Amino acid sequence: MMKKILGCMRRAIQDFELIETGDKIGVGLSGGKDSMVLLKALKQYQSFSPVDFQLEAFTVDLGFDGFDTDTIRSYCNSLDVPLNLSKTRISEIVFNVRKEKNPCSLCAKMRKGAIHNALKERGFNKLAFAHHSDDALDTLFLSMLYEGRISTLKPLTYLSRKDIYLIRPFLYLSEQDIIGAIQKYDIPVVKNPCYVDKLTKREHVHNLLTEIYKEVPGSRERLLTSLKNEDGLNLWF
Predict the structure, then answer these.
(1) Residue 61 phi/psi, 5° resolution?
(2) What CATH number labels 2-197?
(3) What is the pTM of this model?
């Protein structure tokens, strides 16, 4: 299982030139299954990578009760990866001060701001997120259904205001690949303490797509192919 994950990750790194010699890469570590597997995979990749790079984990504590940072720290220690933990009041601001009806957007913006600041303080130039191919498809349909535009997650994004590159080495992997790794290697997963976890528009779209994949055999693979089919883009303008 890890051989497949490393193979797909290495191909993405090479195809999109995600890692270069001298990079200082921070992994956005939420404690969820995707980021926990990414940290393990990047640590293993570091041992045989053709280029030298630094690796550390960055976690943002949003301030929810019950967020298990001890498990995250123990996991990082087991991999010999330094952990940078930023404690914030984001949950209080979003839910109690602002009382947002749609809290996810503001929370995500503040969380990204906190992790970007932490990276800059440590002099890191790249941030690795664990988004996989199912996240990319979910984002594509979220964008079309709720924003009226065609957009999805990119393997490499440059944030000019922060002078940070976002990299997504897992875009060639599926959610099932990651679940398989969690089960096979007994990787710990920290429960998301957010009040609206699993109650978001993203979760709804994910469930809709899961039904489509069942109803239309091969549809998931063809949708992924469409993301790379630039010549097949046929719009009104």
Answers:
(1) -85, 110
(2) 3.40.50.620
(3) 0.94
